[in-house]
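Support reply, case 0932

Customer input (verbatim):
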Amino acid sequence: QVQFAESGGGLVQPGGSLRLSCAASIDIFSIYRMSWYRQAPGKQRELVATITSGGSTIYADSVKGRFTISRDNAKNTVYLQMDSLKPEDTAVYYCNGQYYSLSPLYPWGQGTQVTVSS
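Our regenerated output:
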């Protein structure tokens, strides 16, 4: 069964940075799309950033210019570098993937909590 293990969250002050990691239990080299999502209290889960197997990236408007997604296929790990964090970035962050462009998402992991507060 495919599993994703997210880590790297924590408490950070506004303007600070965090780097999230997502370790996959499978070889991600062939997974077309790997993405980070987040879910804030009382809100729906939303897409934050996506990276394709070819290295193309897409970001939500709310994080564009502040977050950077990357993938290390050799380590089966996807990263999310988050800079200039804002209180509204507070959420549980999850990663997931789609083997092909229209494939369903894999089962969700536990996520990692990010709290931005002074």
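We compared this against your earlier run and they match. Two observations from our side: The mean pLDDT is 96. The beta strands are 4-7, 10-12, 18-24, 33-39, 46-52, 57-59, 67-72, 77-82, 91-98, 112-116. Please reopen the case if you see a mismatch on your end.
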